Amino acid sequence: EPYFKSQKEYENHWKKMLKSSILSLEDYEELTYKESIDRMKNRMGIRKKLLEKKTTDDIYSYFVNSFLKEYDPHTSYLSAKEIADFNISMKLQLSGIGAVLTGEKGFIKVIKITSNGPAAKGKELQPEDKIIAVATDGKEFEDIMDWPLGEAINLIRGKKGTTVKLRVIPSGSKTA
């Protein structure tokens, strides 16, 4: 039996979910109603863009893992991309900017700069800075506001020697 009995019930559910999210933004982030709607539109646009990037392998992996978790929560299927990511992490073939990051209120926030990493050597990135866009190897800047942390980190890291440029809101700035 479907979760929703009709298309109208489905649409009403999503209207309530969006309204709740907008009200939460107003309350917790102290945004105006218009700012909250704009933030939600931006988030939905980013989610749509991220969903459009999903491949059939990604969808297959989600499906198989959902099925496997029902029978054994300790078993999982790894797609070719996930195996490659796992192997990279085990062999340490990719390196990052040398910073510990977290997601906070739609921003990717720098928690700590690791010693001897590229960020420490550059001395431009500081704890509490908010990364809002990333450009790698001469490509255009890509806005990462409201991105999931893992997706943003995947964009930032690369093989050693990769050029990474960041657009940052400095800590203490009144902008955000």
Written description of the protein model:
With 176 residues, the chain is an alpha+beta fold. It has 2 domains: 7-89, no CATH class; 94-169, PDZ domain (Pdz3 Domain, Roll), CATH 2.30.42. 47% of the residues lie in helices and 18% in strands. The chain contains 6 helices and 7 strands. Strands 2, 3, 4, 5 and 7 form a 5-stranded antiparallel sheet that branches. A hairpin with a 5-residue loop joins strand 4 and strand 5 (142-143). Helix 1 (7-28) crosses helix 2. The longest helix is centred in the first third of the chain and has 22 residues, at 7-28. The chain is flat, with a radius of gyration of 19 Å. The N and C termini lie far apart (45 Å). The mean pLDDT is 84. Residues 87-157 form the PDZ domain. This is Tail-specific protease.
Number of domains: 2
State the share of residues found in helices, binned by percent: 40-55%
Poorly predicted segments: none
- Rg, Å, rounded: 19 Å
Main sheet makeup: 5 strands, antiparallel
- What portion of the residues fall into strands of 2 or more residues? 15-25%
Mean pLDDT across the residues is: 84
SSE succession: HHHHEEEHEEHEE
CA(first)-CA(last) distance? 45 Å
Helix count, per DSSP? Answer: 6
Topology at a glance:
Elements: H1 7-28, H2 33-52, H3 56-71, H4 80-91, E1 94-95, E2 99-104, E3 107-113, H5 118-122, E4 130-136, E5 142-143, H6 149-156, E6 158-159, E7 164-169
Antiparallel strand pairs: 1-6, 2-3, 3-4, 4-5, 4-7
Helix pairs in contact: 1-2
